[in-house]
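Onboarding guide, step 5: your first structure request.
Type a short instruction followed by the sequence, for example:

Predict the 3D structure of this protein.
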Amino acid sequence: MKMAADTNTFLAVAMNEPEKDWLIEVTKGHDLVAPVVLPYEIGNALSALMRRKLLTESQLGSVWDSAMAIPVELASIDTRAAVLLAGRFQIYAYDAYFLQCAIETKSPLLTLDRPMKRVAGELDITIVEG
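The system replies with C-alpha cells like these:
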C-alpha cells in the first residue's frame, strides 16, 4: 500500500526526532509517495531550521542526505487543484500539494501536522495514526 508522506515525517526521521521509531514502524512494508516538490520543501525547512539556530551548517549535509535516502516515489500532481484546496481551507500551498497527492494516489496521509490532519479529515483522506 502507498502512503502519502508529508515533509515533516522525512525530517523527523532524518533528525532523529522522538517520532522516528514510530514512523519507521508504521511505514514498514509500505511505499511512500510525495509530490515532486518534496526535495524543495525539505531544503526550505532545513534553511528555516538553520536560521532559527535549530540546525548548524555542519549538520546540514548529513540531515539532507538522510532525508533524501528515504525511498519515496515523487509524483506529479494537479497543482491547480492543490492551489484551490489551499484557498478553500486557507492553508499553505505546500500543505495542499501533499493533500492533493494523497487524493490523487488514493493513499492515506502520514503527517505530524495537526492542522493538516484536520483538513485531511474534512477531505475524507485517511490519516495514518499510531
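Each response can be followed by summary notes, for example: Residues 33 and 73 are 5 Å apart (CA to CA).
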